[in-house]
UniProtKB/TrEMBL annotation:
Alphabetical list of Pfam families matching this protein: Flavoprotein (PF02441)
Protein name: Flavoprotein domain-containing protein
GO molecular function: FMN binding; phosphopantothenoylcysteine decarboxylase activity
InterPro entries attached to this UniProt entry: Flavin_trans-like (IPR036551), Flavoprotein (IPR003382)
GO biological process, one term: coenzyme A biosynthetic process
Residues of the Flavoprotein domain: 5-176
Amino acid sequence: MLKGKKIILGVCGSIAAYKAALLVRQLVKAEAEVQVILTASASEFITPLTLATLSRRPVLSQFVRDEAGTWNNHVELGLWADALVVAPASANTVAKFANGLCDNLLSATYLSARCPVFVAPAMDLDMYQHPAVQSNFTKLRGYGNRIIEAGHGELASGLVGQGRMAEPEEIVQVLQNFFSGDRKIV
């Protein structure tokens, strides 16, 4: 069901970024083409080399690729994709998407995307439950985005509650269901 699908995977700064490697691996195994866009803060949690190796494509993170002025065209990326998946999605990126802020390649690609968008948040339980974050989720749903709810469990802070990014298998299943025609809102 994912064979030949073009998936942009946005990876944001979160301890859950390590799960992005597993997600890329599973998407590639399902024969999807995966283009990773890594935010600056995400690269402190997982390396571009890991994600490039698994996706078999260079990881993008900046608008400009090199000193010659070659750039990563966010409009072309947005038109290329069959789906944009942001996993993990930080509270910062969720707020940018919800409010149309566009200061990095991922948020610019999001605003240019014509494809379905899936957001898998990961944050501590108090952040996840904060009214501002919940309001941003509501806005994103209102724009037609699909939120893959965070799971409940032990968090990196040591607290227990909702905020764990959905497991890669669950995210892949959501995508498979979507592309097989089961398009219920997550």
